[in-house]
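Final paragraph of the annual report: two paired records, presented back to back.
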Amino acid sequence: MAIRQVRETLEKLLALQHQVERDGERLYDGWKDDITRETFHTSARNLAHYMALRRNELSTLQWASMGRLEARVLPTLQAVAASCAHIVGDEDMQFDYPLREDFVLGEQLLDDNAEQTLGPEPEKRYTRIMVTMPTEAARDPSIIDGLVEQGMEIARINCSHDDESVWLAMIEQVRQAERTHNRTCRVSMEIPGPKIRIDRLLTTQRKARVLRGDRIFLTGNKGMFLPAGISTAIRCTIPEIIDYLAEGEPVIIDDGHIECVVAERMDDGVILSVTRVVRERGILLRPEKGINFPGLDYRVPLLSHRDEQILDFICKNADVIGCSFVRDREDIALLREEINKRLPAPDSMPIIIKIETLDSMRVLPEILVAAASHVPTAVMIARGDLAVEVGYERLSEYQEEILWICEAAHVPVIWATQVAETMVQTGIPTRAEVSDITLAAKSECIMLNKGEHINEAVLLVGDILTKFEKHVYKKTAILRKLSIASEMFDD
């Protein structure tokens, strides 16, 4: 690159640095008074600088190694500016390089926050493995014992299912497995939050199999019935939402496996017309499957009465608390308030925030500041509901944005939903699933769901992560020696 081009780049960098400092500090000033975790001031300031930076089109400047700047925005800009000034050779344009401590601080804070929230970093890999506990794990000690032995670092208990007696048995199994294998395994308990689910179903069929073109009656009433010409009715867990549904409104069931539209309103509910199913032979409806209403402007309270009841148990027994469908900083304030009522010391329990709506994506920096400025925090990318909300064609774009913004805030990320799903169910992974695992290596944790072959899946995922993480950290390729290149040269 010619000296003139370097000088032009330097001028652009200096203007960019000034704008990022000015706008970032203004954003940080609006956050700093509410921050109670002293270590989060550095993270909040860097996140503010990152959001100010990403207001700009940066592709023409990216030659200057800015691809690895999420965790250290200003030190990177300073280092590039100092390098350009050195190349130009103008004594009036010399700049100091950032301190090494400032340059590595971001990664250190991210690692520290990941350890506080998700537990110690595994010995041979960077990314931890979380597994959702099946009900059988409460009765069969070998399930959790085998998972801890194979490499599970976090046992996730989804409190949408089972009850306190089952959860306590699972936790006792985890603690025993920790002692047996001398390994740390954290217990994450997830509050259901305002996810709308199928509460009950009624059908004239042996099984409620849904095909394209079928009609389903959706109601919120306890007294269920089948309207004339309808073979399947479902009741949802939040009845009042039925009143907000108009004809033509899209309704998505089972994480996008069934797509419908409201065809007709009735006094006791609505008739749904099934427009698409993912399998030609149909999809079976079951209680507890999720129902989404994309675009519907209706705010469900974050915590139900049942959520508040189970929080008593969770705060006594969990290592980290997860919450579904957090939408904004007001939800974070409510969540912290309810948790802190039940803790001996305020903000002493780490939290996991599930990001699964477009609304929460739009205010993600505000959510991170509201949470991580007070309590160790992780973010879970709930790709099932998020895909329903934003569309499958945009899911990859949004999950990358979540990773970038969270890294800028030094907040660890959990990559979730259908990771190695075929492997978990059948014991044989698809090629696409192996590639998905390597993408997930950019996160601090991968979540696997329950299934018959979960032990083999944990072993496979751990092995892939151990090998792949030697080649990539976050979004940066690590230039290790290539075996192919070695073969081209004589010793």
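The closing record of the year follows.
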Amino acid sequence: MKAAAQPNLEQYDNKLFHFGFTIAVNNASMRIDSKATSFQPQDSLMNVNQVSFPGIGLGAISNLRLGEYWDLRMMFPVISFVERDLTYQFPITQKTVKIESAYCDFSLLLKYKSARRKNTRLYVITGIRGSYDLSSTVKQDRSLHAPVVSLTPLTFGYEGGFGMDIYFEYFKFSPEIKMCNTFGNAMYRDGFIYTDAIERLAPRLFQFSLHFE
């Protein structure tokens, strides 16, 4: 009975470094700031809406112990596949523009952990994120009849979330929920109505991750 009650991985959090990997599912969206002057009868465009889709991600974790309750975490590389479509509503028709991205993400995060209770401990996490779109469409040909809306390949943002560390006999498992928001305007302006109608596009990401360390 005493052996069964022993905590798992008792010295795990005393290591200076430890490593792991993450598997994530995400739901991508965008903040859309439209130009009020664009939605006039002479422009034919009535409205712009977005549709979000689930995506996936896979990456590596490196963790540096700063103290009893603090860690510095680096998530790199993390490859994330996301999609969010824009629907342009015209008086008698509509056009849908797909915005698909394959991001290589880098995150530098500060993790604050609660006191450990047997084989679990809660934590919150926050930090900065850089993303490079490996499938950027900035150089793709476009026209009024073949619309393309591109995001700048390199974007930066901030993220925050919370999770739980669960200690098993041979590894630590951590489910985590995180929100990621982009700084500034990520839209590439090309002179066509599909980008001229929009003042600002700022990608957002809601992510549920499973960490194995």
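The longest helix spans residues 193-196. This concludes the annual technical report; the extension proposal builds directly on these records.
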